[in-house]
Structures are given as C-alpha cells and as structure tokens.
C-alpha cells in the first residue's frame, strides 16, 4: 500500500466538482504556489526586459545628448548586462517551473488514470471502447500538459508584456500610450476569429490524414488479397484519389494562413506607423525626449506583436479544457474496492463453497441466473455443462466477485462472499480462460505474471514442466526469454493455453475455474493439455465449464444448466440413469462413437 | 535486417551529402516555385532591415533636426516597406506551404506505388507500423525540410548578413564586435538544440511504450483482475512514466535555459557597443540614430540565430528520415518477371511441383518444404491436411508465386511458371483466406474487387452463388452497407461468404482456399460449403482443409508433415492405412459431431 501512495501522490477520483476550473485547481494540488511563482517570475522577467530599454533611454538622453557623465560608462554597460542576466534568470525560473508543474501534473494524471482504469468494474469495461479510452489517456492528457506548460504561462507572459510595457510608455507620455491601442483590439479579434476558424479546417485536414493512413494500413494488412487479385493498379488509383484530396485540403488551409499573416502584419504595421508619427511629432515638439522616443520604438514592438499570438493560445486553451473534461469523466466512474471487506480471514481458504438461491442480473436487465443452489467440498471437482448463453460463465464470474450477485447467498468456508475482500478471493482463485491472454513480455515473465513475490527460474521451469510446455519453450532460440507477441514468436493456441496453465500453477490457488480450456486448441495438442490440466486440478476445488462429456465423467458433481437455471445435478452415474438433457447428450455422444465406428468399417 | 533496424528512433547523427542531394531532388520538379519563394523570403528580410534604417533616419534627420515634414516623409516610406512586406509574406507562406504539401503528396504516392511492387517476403519481415511511419511521418519531415527549413534558414542567413552589412556601413568597429559574437551565439544555440532533440526522442520512445501499456492493461483487464496484478502493474507503469517525466522535464529545462543564454550573449554585444558609443558619439563617428539602429539589430538578432539552430538541429532528423525512406524506395522486389516473360492465353491445365524445396529467408534456414513433388491434373480438387506448421500454406504461397522455389520447378501446363508474367498467374487465381480480409467501403465495392467491370446482375449472381445474397439483402442498406475498417462490422462467417462471392466474381481458372478453423454457425457453414462447391466446379482447386465434408469431397487428399507428403490418396484408401490421416480424421469427426449436438442443446 505504501508504494502506491507514493506513485499516486494525489487521488484524482476525489476531484469531482461539477465545475471544470475547480477540478483543474484540484489537479494542481501541491504545485499551486510553485506555478504562481512561475507566473510571477515571468512578470519580473518582463520588468527586467522593459528596464533595459528605459536604461538605454536614460543613457541616450543624459550621457550622449546632455553629456552629463558622473560615473564611468562601464557602470551602464554592467547594468545592462546585469539586467539581461536577471531577465534570463527569471525567465528560466518561470519556464522551468511551469514545465515542472505541467510534467508533474501529466505524470499524476497518467498514473492516476492507469490505476483507475484497471480498478474500474467489469461492467464499465464491457461498455467502453478501448480506442477511445486510450485516446483520452494519451492525447487528451497531452493537451492538459500543454495547457500548463505553454498556454497558461503564455497568456500570463502576453498580459505582463502588455501591462508593463504599456505602463512604461504611459510614464513617458499618456497620449502616446493610448495611441498604441488604436488597432490592437482589432488585431486581437481578427486573430481569435482566424484561429477558431482554422481549427475547424484543420480538423477536416486531420481527418483526411486519418483516411489515407487507414487506407495504407488496410493495403498493407491485405497485401495478400491485393496480390491475389492483382489489384495493384486499382489500389494505387484509390490511394491517389484520397492523397490528392488531402493535398487540396492542405492548400485550402494554407490559403487561410497565407492571408492571415500578412493581413495582420499590415494591421500591426499600420499601428506601428501611426505610433511612429505621433511619437516623432511629440519628440520634435519636445513633449518627450529623444531617448524616450528610442525606448518607445522598442517597447511598442512588445505590445503589438504578442497580441497576434493570443488568438492561437485562447483557441488551444479552450480545446485543452475540453480534453480535461474528457479525462475527468473517466474519474467520475466508481472503482471497485479491492481490499474492502468486513471480514478478513487470517488463513488460506479450505475451498468449501455453498450457493443458496443465488440470482444475478446486469443493471436493470432480465435475470441471467435464477435460483442457483449447490455446495462443493474442498478438493472436489464440479463440472458445469450447458449451451452458450445458459449462464455457465456468468456463474463463474460471481466467485472472484467480478460481478456481484443480486440476491441469495454464496459462502466460502461459511463466510458470505461479499464480506470478503475481493483481493482475498482473487488471490486464491485461479482462472484458465477459453482464449488465454498473454502479455507482450518474455515467456518466463508471463508465467510469473500472477505472483507478487519473486519466483526463481527453477520454480518457473517446474510449473512449465507440469504444464507440459517446458520442452516447447526450450526449443525457442531464447528459451524462457523469448518475447511473446508482435516482436517475438507467434504461439499456437495450444502453446498459449499451456503457458496460461503454467501461470496458474505457479500462482497455486485453492480454487480453480477452467473455462472451456480445450475448445480453441488443435486436436493434435489436446492430449498434452489434458495432462497439464490433470496436474493443475490436483488438490484444488475445481470448477470446469465444459461441453464434452468425456472430460467431466469423473467430476464429483455435474450441474446441467439451461436458461440461467440448474436443471439437473448429480454424478455421471446418477445423471445417465435419469431422463433429461444429460442423458440425451450422453446418448448423442455414444451415437457419435458408433457412427465413427461405422464410418471406419463400411465406407 | 536486424531487429534494431526497425527501431523508430534509430538515429545516425552524421550528415551524408548524398542523402541531402537525393532529398533535394524531390524538389527539382518545382524549382521555379522555389526560386519564387526564396525571392519573397529575401524581400521580406530586406524590408525588416530597411525598417531599422528608417528608424535611424527618423531620429537623425527628423527628430534631431526638428523637421515634421521629414518625419512624415520617412514614415511614409516605412508604410511602403510594410506593404511590400505583406505581399512578400503572403508570397512565401503560400508558395512554400503549397510546395511542401505537394512534395509530401509526391513522396507518399511514390512510396505507396513502390510498395505495391514489392514481394510478399518484404511484408512478412517488415512491421506494418514501420512502413506506416515511413509513408506518413518521415515523408513529412522531408517536405518540411525542403520548404520551411529552407525558408527559415535562408531568412535567417540573409537577415544576419544584411543586418551585419548595414551595421558595417554605420560603424565598422562596432559591427566587428557583433560579428565576433554572432558565431558563438549560433554554435551555442545549435548545441542546445541537439541536446533538446535527444531528450525529446527519449520522451517519444517512452510515450509509445506508455500507450502500449494502456492498451494491454485495458484489453487484458480480465487476467489482470483475476491475477490481482493491479499493484504491480501500477509500479511497472510508474517505471515508464517517471523516466518520461525526467526526460521531458530535462528537455523543458534545457529549453528554458536556451533563450536566456542567447539573450545574455547578445547583451554582451550590447554592453560592448555602449562602452564604445561614448567615444564615437563625442568624435562624431556615429549618430544617436545609429546607436539606436545598433541596439535594434543586436536585440533582434536573437530570432534568426534561433531559427538557424532549429533548422540545423532538425536537419539531422530529416536526414535520418531520408535515409529510411530511401531504404524503402531502394528495396527491389525479390520476385520479378524475367525480360521475356509472356502472358499465356490461359493457365488452366496440369500443375506440377517437381522436386521443390523452399525455406523462408527470415527464418533460420531450415527447409519448410523439402524435395516436394506433386502432379495435379486439370480440374482436380486437392485437399491439403496436416498439423500447423507442416508446410501447407507454403505450398499455396509458392503456387501463387508470392514466393518462388529455392530448388526445383513448378510447372503450369508443362511450362516453368516463371516464364509467365506474374500478373497473368495471379489475376487468374481465386483466393479465399482463412482470415478473410475486406477493405473499408461498401459490400458492393468489396465484391467488385474480384472484377472491376462486373455489372450489378453479375454481382448479385455471384453473391447468390456464394450464398451471401440472403444476408446482404437483410442488411439495412443491402449491397451499399458499409463493412467498416478491415470489414470488422461483419461477422467472420459473413466476411467469408463475401470473400467467396468476390472470388466467384473473378471467375478464376485456379481456386485456392484456406478454410477457417474458427467456428461459425451451422447455417453459415452450410452456405460456405455450397459456395465452395460452386467455385471448385471444373476448376483445379487447392484447399487447405479442416472440415470433414470438404476433405471427403476432394479428389485427392495430401497429408503433409514437416514439409513432406507422408500420405496421399482418397478418403477411403487413407482410412484403411490407419496412419496419420486416420488419427486426424477420428479426432475431427468427434469435434464436429459434438459441435453439432451442442447447437441442438
């Protein structure tokens, strides 16, 4: 728990205000003062910059024109240098601190999101789209990062530039200061309008980019089809059409840009010209000094041109806020508490399980499980048989509390399941999936994936041997260090299955759930897997979901399920003597064997 | 090609003249436009410098002499420079941008076209992601370098040179100080850039790992929850995000330090000028306006220096991009038609594998097929059976000439198939893959892939023959229904029916099918069987078979194990042998029957 507190330095699930800006404020927790200092420091840096020009103005007036020289000129040169160094220091402090905050917040959001997502309930994961979730976790988080590292601090910089330089000019002459404002609002409006407009066009351009990108991707993944139908020419034409469309959209975007920059250049230039002439007249009339005029020429630049950028920053900021909202929406969902439980057993479970009138339904939907009752002694094997949709898998999802039963009672060693922490249950329940999921790491790491404590190589190999996959692994060039997935070997269904079995063996759970573990496997490797499974089931309370009678004949209890109910239960011997579904299945299966025999001799 | 070759952030760091030359060759078709935008760029920067000089005149000739008419005259000139500048800014933004888009377009088209010519072996060793980023992003870096890179660097160089020129004209001693400091500024800026880029590369590399991590954590959520990995996963994730933070922060700090450093250097120049100015003014060597112009030139020197450093830093990356693009474009297709290859009337006829051996180049050289011989008569249906990895797919790949035999000959109609044009073989083959691949678009478009000129009637007929018509009609938009990316809006069974119809429409002379192992429902299964029958009728067919009904219907069954034929014959004959086939058959029989009964349940 301790390490998690360090990794998650601030729990974002608690930031649940309805107001975006309030949540943003929560997000900044721990860095607020720092960020404030960054913005303040930006202001100080601007003050230094403006002071340079004022110092130069004073120097020209007193030193060069009036020739009042009371101290060596080196002092002024040193002063200039000092101001430049100060400006640099403040600017460095401002930017590095703002970026520190931005990167810290991004790190915080990333870790929080990652952790939050993996702790959301299955109900959430079932309804959510993976691509969308990843998009929010990556590009939306990046937009938030830029908000802090560029946009917020950028707006601060422009405002400081404006206020400080305006004040400086105002001190020189108020009328002069106001003369600089003639065109500024216009530039501002044009810029905001332009950036809002172009961001729409930019979206169209980006979409077209996605179009040609997926066209290429389909062409590459379907390369066999393209070649088999000799459709290369056709593909080239198809690509060219979309590619050309992108070029046209790009040109349209450019036309806008090419109009915007020079037209705002003209506006800003006109502003400069007006200010110049007013300033020059003032200087000639002696209302301002020559030095002041020289300073004015530089200061005005820092008022006018940054305004043009403000449009872009404002548009980006509004987008960042949308991204922020999209990320915070994920945090609104409730996590499923792993360690919460009113009863924490000190010992490993024995594996005595009873179900009593258990019902289950997804939120506000029809009941999927109805009135399920049975009990299992420790070490027994329970087989569940039934058609797809009969509720077998759903029933098994209740044991590790992937879903919560809606009524009735499930007890493990006489303790109600929902009083036990989920982590306790999942620690002691092993699941072998129908289609096992392996992670893109080495085979050895995949086997050790389910255990928190470090396992020695020999323990891993022991598990692999019991799962009859050891020899296969050794046949790979890198053995246990072979990567699984895109950058490594492609494993067959049977190999994956046995690695998953080894993983479960190493975990060594008291209770085992096997979901149709042999159905997706080549007939060839089935016998290998059977022996691996036998090893796995030894001394554990085991649930087998199956559709083949051979595999379950020896089960201590067989449950036949249909439409969410248990319609028959008993041992193989009981059930074949009972009229019902199981007997029917058994008869069919016997018939198959007879048919097969007939095929062999008479065909 | 080693594994590292496909590393996205692979970076040599040295500049190869040849590659630069080749990169700029992409610009040759547009050389007139290049001339135009460089002229506009020069005009823009010239106006910049003139504006500074006009300020000097404004001080010296209007303010210090007290002439208002002179002031108006000078500001009028100033207005003129702004007008000229606006026009030239429009010119270079538009032209450079347009050429950039155009070269990007050209590059993408060129690579795409080239990719269509490459052999299948290239695609089996080259990750899709690698190719995609060549076509999408490396091409962008190149087009960016030859346009905006050129604009920025020519702008910067000319700006610095013209400014220095004006400064020399005003006062050569002061100008020398600036001249001495400028190279230091440029080198400093460039060094910063290189270091910042290095950190950014690291951030990008980690970022793609972070994305992968999210992806796996979401798609593997069931296993993660079941194995209680949350704590450990978060710790591992933090081991990615923490260094990412470190790298990003280091880059940001360098970035924050970068500008102040350059600024302080320019302040040094400024301070030196101030030190000199007293004597110069007193001796009348420079005017107040002249001093102002110097201050202005020196303080605005920052921007071109920064641009220059940026372009130079990015140039190294662009060259690495160029290198990668050229390796793609320089790859020759392994399988090519010989000069005298011809187009046969038809490829219907007997097919013979004559002592064929084959191994994949990317493997460890162990043969996949060894001394494989097989004669197939025109119209015969061949079922290939055997366990995965035995060499069944390789036989089909060789037959389609996606690969060619390393030893031995494949003959069609008695001639080595290499004497035919590749396209003439492939366009006459109808192929249905195990995992059917559809292209995004409508069902109609996907069917037409088999025959671009097919009429609507032919289309419907083919769909009917394949048994696809019925489900297509039931879709809300019928034949105009969108199938989604890679056809993912349809079920596997439906995709297979469409790919059968597509093959029927192509009216092939040779039919090849890799049967799907994944389960589809019985009704679809039956439809697929009927579609196959349609296709096999009268055509030489090779089926990698999994279903008993298909196997039994074949004229001849070939059992392949470790690249060799171990059993061969008809169904009944093989059963009697009680060998590998017998074993495979009984297992398959049970599985299929059990599936049948499970559906009855």
UniProtKB/TrEMBL annotation, chain A:
Membrane topology: Multi-pass membrane protein
Domain ABC transporter residues, every copy: 353-588
Keyword match Transmembrane helix: yes
Record's subcellular location: Cell membrane
Sequence intervals crossing the membrane: 35-59, 71-94, 152-170, 176-195, 290-307
Annotated ABC transmembrane type-1 domain residues: 36-319
Listed name of the protein: ABC-type multidrug transport system, ATPase and permease component
Taxon lineage: Bacteria, Bacillati, Chloroflexota, Anaerolineae, Anaerolineales
From TrEMBL, chain B:
Protein name, per record: ABC-type multidrug transport system, ATPase and permease component
SMART domains named among the record's database cross-references: AAA
Transmembrane regions: 33-54, 75-95, 115-133, 145-166, 172-192, 254-276
Predominant location: membrane
Protein's cellular compartments: Cell membrane
Entry membrane topology: Multi-pass membrane protein
Single GO MF descriptor: ABC-type oligopeptide transporter activity
ABC transmembrane type-1 domain residues: 35-317
Keywords for this protein: ATP-binding, Membrane, Nucleotide-binding, Transmembrane, Transmembrane helix, Transport
Annotated ranges, domain ABC transporter: 351-587
GO cellular component: plasma membrane
């Amino acid at each position: 728990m301790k390490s998690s507190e360090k990794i998650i330095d601030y729990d974002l699930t608690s930031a649940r205000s309805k107001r975006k800006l309030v949540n943003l404020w929560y997000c900044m927790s721990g860095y607020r003062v720092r960020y404030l200092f960054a913005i303040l420091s930006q202001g100080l840096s601007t003050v230094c910059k403006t002071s340079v020009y004022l110092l130069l103005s004073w120097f020209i007036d007193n030193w060069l024109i009036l020739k009042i020289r009371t101290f060596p000129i080196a002092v002024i040169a040193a002063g200039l240098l000092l101001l430049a160094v100060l400006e640099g220091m403040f600017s460095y402090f401002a930017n590095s601190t703002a970026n520190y905050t931005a990167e810290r917040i991004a790190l915080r959001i990333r870790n929080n999101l990652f952790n939050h997502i993996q702790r959301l309930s299955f109900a959430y994961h079932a309804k959510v789209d993976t691509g969308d979730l990843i998009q929010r976790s990556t590009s939306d988080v990046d937009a938030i990062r830029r908000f802090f590292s560029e946009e917020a601090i950028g707006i601060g910089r422009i405002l400081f530039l404006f206020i400080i330089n305006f004040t400086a000019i105002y001190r020189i002459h108020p009328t002069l200061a106001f003369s600089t404002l003639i065109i500024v609002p216009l530039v501002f409006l044009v810029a905001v309008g332009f950036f809002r407009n172009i961001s729409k066009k930019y979206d169209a351009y980006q979409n077209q980019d996605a179009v040609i990108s997926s066209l290429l991707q389909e062409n590459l993944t379907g390369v066999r089809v393209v070649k088999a139908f000799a459709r290369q020419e056709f593909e080239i034409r198809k690509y060219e059409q979309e590619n050309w469309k992108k070029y046209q959209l790009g040109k349209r975007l450019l036309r806008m840009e090419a109009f915007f920059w020079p037209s705002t250049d003209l506006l800003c230039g006109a502003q400069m010209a007006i200010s110049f002439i007013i300033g020059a007249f003032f200087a000639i009339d002696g209302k301002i000094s020559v030095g002041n005029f020289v300073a004015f020429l530089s200061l005005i630049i820092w008022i006018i041109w940054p305004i043009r950028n403000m449009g872009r920053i404002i548009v980006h900021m509004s987008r960042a806020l949308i991204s922020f909202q999209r990320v915070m929406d994920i945090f609104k969902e409730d996590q499923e508490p792993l360690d919460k439980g009113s009863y924490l057993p000190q010992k490993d479970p024995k594996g005595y399980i009873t179900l009593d009138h258990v019902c289950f339904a997804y939120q506000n939907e029809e009941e999927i499980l109805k009135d399920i009752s049975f009990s299992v002694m420790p070490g027994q094997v329970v087989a569940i048989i039934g058609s797809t949709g009969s509720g077998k898998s759903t029933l098994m999802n209740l044991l590790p509390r992937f879903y919560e039963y809606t009524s009735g009672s499930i007890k493990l060693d006489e303790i109600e399941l929902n009083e036990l922490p989920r982590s306790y249950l999942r620690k002691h329940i092993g699941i072998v999936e129908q289609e096992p999921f392996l992670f893109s790491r080495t085979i050895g790491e995949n086997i050790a994936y389910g255990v928190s404590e470090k396992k020695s190589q020999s323990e891993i190999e022991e598990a692999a041997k019991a799962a009859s996959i050891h020899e296969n692994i050794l046949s790979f060039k890198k053995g246990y260090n072979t990567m699984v997935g895109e950058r490594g070997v492609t494993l067959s269904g049977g190999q994956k299955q046995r690695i998953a079995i080894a993983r479960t063996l190493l975990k060594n759970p008291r209770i085992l759930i096997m979901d149709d573990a042999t159905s997706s496997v080549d007939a060839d490797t089935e016998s290998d897997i059977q022996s691996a499974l036998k090893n796995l089931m030894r001394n554990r309370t085991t649930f087998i979901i199956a559709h083949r009678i051979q595999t379950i004949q020896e089960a201590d209890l067989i449950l036949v399920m249909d439409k969410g109910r248990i319609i028959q239960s008993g041992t193989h011997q009981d059930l074949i003597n009972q009229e019902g579904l199981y007997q029917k299945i058994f008869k069919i299966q016997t018939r198959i064997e007879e048919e097969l025999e007939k095929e062999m001799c008479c065909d | 090609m080693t594994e590292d070759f496909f590393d996205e952030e692979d970076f040599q760091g040295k500049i190869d003249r040849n590659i630069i030359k080749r990169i700029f060759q992409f610009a040759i078709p547009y050389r007139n436009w290049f001339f135009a935008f460089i002229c506009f760029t020069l005009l823009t920067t010239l106006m910049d410098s003139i504006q500074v000089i006009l300020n000097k005149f404004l001080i010296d000739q209007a303010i210090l002499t007290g002439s208002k008419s002179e002031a108006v005259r000078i500001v009028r000139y100033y207005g003129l420079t702004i007008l000229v500048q606006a026009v030239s800014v429009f010119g270079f933004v538009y032209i450079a941008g347009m050429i950039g888009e155009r070269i990007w377009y050209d590059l993408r088209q060129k690579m795409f076209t080239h990719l269509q010519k490459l052999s299948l072996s290239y695609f089996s060793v080259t990750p899709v992601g690698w190719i995609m980023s060549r076509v999408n992003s490396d091409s962008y870096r190149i087009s960016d370098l030859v346009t905006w890179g050129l604009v920025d660097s020519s702008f910067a160089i000319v700006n610095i040179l013209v400014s220095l020129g004006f400064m020399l004209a005003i006062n050569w001693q002061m100008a020398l100080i600036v001249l001495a400091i400028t190279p230091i500024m440029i080198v400093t800026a460039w060094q910063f850039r290189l270091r910042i880029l290095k950190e950014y590369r690291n951030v990008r590399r980690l970022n793609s790992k972070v994305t992968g991590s999210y992806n796996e954590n979401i798609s593997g959520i069931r296993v993660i929850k079941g194995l209680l990995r949350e704590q450990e996963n978060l710790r591992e994730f933090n081991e990615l995000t923490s260094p990412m933070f470190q790298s990003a922060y280091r880059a940001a700090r360098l970035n924050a330090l970068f500008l102040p450093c350059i600024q302080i250097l320019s302040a040094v120049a400024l301070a030196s000028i101030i030190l000199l100015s007293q004597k110069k003014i007193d001796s009348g060597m420079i005017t107040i306006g002249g001093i102002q112009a110097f201050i202005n030139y020196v303080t605005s020197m920052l921007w071109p220096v920064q641009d220059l450093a940026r372009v130079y830093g990015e140039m190294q990356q662009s060259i690495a991009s160029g290198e990668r693009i050229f390796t793609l474009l320089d790859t020759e297709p392994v399988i090519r038609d010989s000069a005298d290859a011809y187009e046969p009337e038809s490829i219907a006829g007997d097919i013979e594998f004559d002592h064929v051996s084959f191994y994949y180049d990317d493997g460890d050289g162990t043969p996949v097929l060894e001394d494989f011989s097989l004669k197939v008569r025109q119209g015969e249906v061949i079922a290939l059976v055997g366990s995965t990895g035995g060499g069944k797919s390789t036989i089909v790949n060789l037959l389609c000439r996606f690969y060619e035999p390393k030893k031995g000959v494949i003959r069609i109609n008695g001639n080595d198939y290499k004497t035919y044009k590749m396209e003439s073989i492939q366009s006459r083959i109808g192929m249905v893959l195990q995992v059917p691949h559809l292209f995004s678009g409508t069902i109609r478009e996907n069917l037409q892939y088999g025959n671009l000129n097919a009429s609507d009637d032919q289309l419907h007929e083919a769909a009917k023959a394949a048994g696809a018509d019925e489900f297509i009609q039931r879709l809300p938009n019928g034949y105009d229904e969108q199938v989604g990316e890679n056809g993912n809006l349809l079920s596997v069974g439906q995709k297979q029916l469409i790919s059968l119809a597509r093959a029927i429409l192509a009216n092939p002379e040779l039919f090849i099918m890799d049967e799907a192992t994944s389960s589809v429902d019985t009704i679809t299964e039956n439809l697929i069987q009927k579609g196959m029958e349609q296709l096999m009728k009268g055509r030489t067919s090779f089926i990698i078979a999994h279903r008993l009904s298909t196997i039994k219907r074949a004229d001849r069954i070939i059992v392949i194990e470790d690249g060799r034929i171990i059993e061969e014959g008809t169904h009944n004959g093989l059963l009697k042998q009680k060998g590998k086939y017998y074993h495979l058959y009984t297992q398959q029989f049970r599985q299929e029957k059990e599936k049948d009964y499970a559906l009855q349940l």
